[in-house]
Design a protein that fits this description.
The structure holds two protein chains of two kinds.
Chain A: H1 4-16, H2 21-34, E1 56-63, E2 66-73, H3 76-89, E3 92-93, H4 94-99, H5 103-108, H6 110-115, H7 122-137
Chain B: H1 5-10, E1 18-19, E2 22-23, E3 25-26, H2 37-50, H3 60-80, E4 88-91, H4 94-109, E5 115-119, H5 128-137, E6 140-144, H6 154-160, E7 165-171, H7 183-192, E8 196-200, H8 212-215, E9 219-223, E10 234-238, H9 240-245, E11 256-259, E12 264-266, H10 281-294, H11 298-317, E13 322-325, E14 334-339, H12 344-353, E15 356-357, E16 359-361, H13 366-372, E17 377-381, H14 388-404
Classes of the chains: A alpha+beta, B alpha/beta.
Bound molecules: pyridoxal-5'-phosphate (PLP).
Pyridoxal-5'-phosphate (PLP) is lined by residues 30, 93-95, 123, 125-126, 171, 175, 200, 202-203, 223, 364 of chain B.
Chain lengths: 141, 407
């Protein structure tokens, strides 16, 4: 499996081909549309990420020290953002997830474009993933 | 005479800017309005030529600043037709105005077992302060529901009213549905049982009639920033006899008369409710905004906005699967909607990339969203400088967004 950094670089490269935000959103929407919907039994109250305008579910599993993630949202754009996070983090060793600096947000300009919109819940998703990685790394259930 | 929309647009510098490579279409006026050049200049002039603290010093600049600040109070008084200048209290905004009344009226007049009535369509700012006051005073919190058109159920209101009702609070215009509530009728009903009424005029004072004496409102609250004035300044109007009988809300400088270790006596109205150095320039900017509105005829403004609203509804309803929330007989300035199968956040985001500013979400009215069984809407809200072209730009941008979202 590629490293978190390598995966981030891929995203940065993908975005560099899409200078306009309109194109970027089209890309995110496409990612959202392609992502498998979460099975109903994972759409629990517990898996809902708070702090978003849309409903976001994040299913987390810790298997042999690795973080495994599934996600869904009723917003296609948010689902696309979740797809990016899953691409970077899911299947990675918990320590790596914890240590990762998310350079791709700054390098693609996503942090600036999206940060004003607390609504998308991106930061809330990252916080949850990191918090889960900490537990997973510490071998807590 | 119809208003000259090109002339008006030229008075608002920000309307000529670009957003995301597109000319700005600003349709988030219920959140805050843009400011005309005259307001910007009044503020700049204050800071460049006569900035000074007020009501205290004997020097020249202070008297200029005091006069301009207090003249702002008189401009507001005339704008809402209050009887006395000292019935105008400056606050940070609608939210603070309501908190002031919820606290001070509660302390003075609300006792265990009493009742307070609000509506299901009130902004959190006109909901939570009353709920907190009821908890503090052990009073009962009652809520008037609205029907499927977004109109308040007045027969329920009638039944809720009793000699136990101390105060009723409702918005004149709903920020999420655009409903114009029958304020005069609701106030008269409350007065029959001896209850006071607070009108949240945050979304009405800039759009529809705003005469506190014609309404016979006991309290009337609004924000400068939603009526073409600056942020950080708001107004609480209160009838003198209520304000006199209420204790101060905050304490400190300005609000005192005599201070000794044994006892402090309070300043007279309005200063009793204006502790500390106020937002000095706020009323100056707000007065400039009112002066600006006064250069136009209010009938013309209303006719223009009503025409835009009707046009907006018609154009939006051409879009397949689009549903408008708020279909009261009397509506003002708000177009709230959803499109089947499309999340409001996605639509709002894609409108933004096309330079169209709207708001999405629950608009600080979660009880409304709960009643409608949704978690949010897209809301386009109008101001006097909006044009038919803005509506067309909105509709064009929605169609493009729908394509991007696979519709
Ligand atoms: C109906 C209504 N009431 C109260 C408020 C609160 O106003 P402010 O945030 O300026 O205090 C708003 C603002 O959104 C509103 O629309």
């Amino acid at each position: 499996m590629e490293s978190i950094q390598a995966l981030q670089n891929e995203i940065i490269e993908d975005f560099s081909f899409l200078p306009q935000w309109e194109e970027r959103y089209a890309y995110l929407i496409e990612l959202g549309q392609k992502m498998e919907p979460l099975i109903e039994e994972y759409k629990t109250e517990e898996n809902i990420v708070r702090g978003c305008q849309s409903t976001v579910w994040l299913h987390r599993e810790c298997i042999e020290g690795k973080v495994h993630l599934l996600a869904d949202s009723d917003s296609l754009i948010v689902k696309g953002l979740a797809a990016l996070l899953l691409k970077v983090f899911s299947g990675q060793p918990a320590e790596d997830v914890l240590a990762a600096d998310l350079s791709f947000f700054a390098e693609t300009g996503m942090d600036q474009h999206l940060s004003s919109q607390r609504a998308n819940g991106l930061m809330a998703m990252i916080e949850q993933i990191k918090a889960f990685a900490a537990k997973c790394a510490a071998n807590e259930p | 005479m119809a208003i000259d929309i090109q002339k008006i647009r030229s008075d608002f510098p920000i309307l000529h800017s670009e957003v995301n490579g597109h000319p700005l279409t600003y349709l988030d006026n219920a959140a805050t309005t843009q400011k005309p050049q005259s307001v910007i200049e009044a503020i700049t002039q204050y800071y460049t030529t006569y900035n000074s603290n007020i009501h205290r010093a004997a020097h020249h600049l202070s008297s200029l600043a005091t006069e301009a600040h207090e003249s702002g109070r008189r401009t507001v008084q005339r704008y809402i037709n209050a009887e006395h200048e000292h019935e105008i209290i400056f606050t940070r905004g609608t939210t603070e105005s309501i908190n002031l009344v919820a606290f001070a009226f509660g302390e003075a007049f609300v006792n265990p077992g009493d009742e307070v009535i609000v509506t299901q369509m009130d902004h959190h700012s006109n909901f939570v302060p009353w709920q907190m006051m009821c908890e503090r005073r052990q009073a009962h919190f009652r809520v008037i529901p609205f029907d499927e058109n977004g109109e308040l159920q007045l027969e329920v209101y009638e039944n809720l009213l009793s000699e136990k009702t101390r105060i009723v609070a409702f918005n004149h215009v709903s920020n999420s549905l655009g409903t114009v509530n029958p304020a005069k009728k609701m106030i008269d009903m409350a007065h029959k049982v001896g209850a006071a009424v607070l009108v949240d005029a945050a979304q009405s004072v800039q759009h529809i009639a705003h005469d506190v004496r014609a309404l016979d409102a006991d309290f009337y609250a609004f924000s400068g920033h939603k009526m073409y004035g600056p942020t950080g300044i708001g107004v609480l109007y209160g009838k003198e006899r209520w304000l006199d009988a209420m204790p101060p809300y905050q304490s400190g400088g300005e609000m005192i008369d005599l201070v000794t270790a044994e006892k402090t006596t309070y300043n007279k109205l309005p200063f009793k409710f204006e502790a500390g150095t106020p937002n000095i320039v706020g009323p100056i900017g707000l007065a400039a905004a009112i002066d600006y509105l006064n250069t136009l005829s209010f009938e013309d403004i209303q006719a223009h906005e009503d025409q835009l609203l009707a046009y907006g509804r018609e154009r939006l309803l051409e879009i397949e699967g689009l549903r408008i929330y708020g279909n009261a007989k009397e509506q003002s300035s708000i177009l709230a909607f959803n499109i089947e199968g499309i999340h409001h956040y996605d639509l709002g985001t894609l409108l933004d990339t096309q330079g169209v500013a709207v708001r999405t979400g629950h608009h600080c009215t979660q009880p409304i969203m709960a009643a409608l069984g949704i978690d949010g809407t897209v809301r386009a809200s109008l101001a006097l400088y909006n044009s038919m072209q803005d509506i067309d730009a909105l509709v064009t941008a929605i169609r493009k967004a729908l394509k991007m979202l696979g519709r």
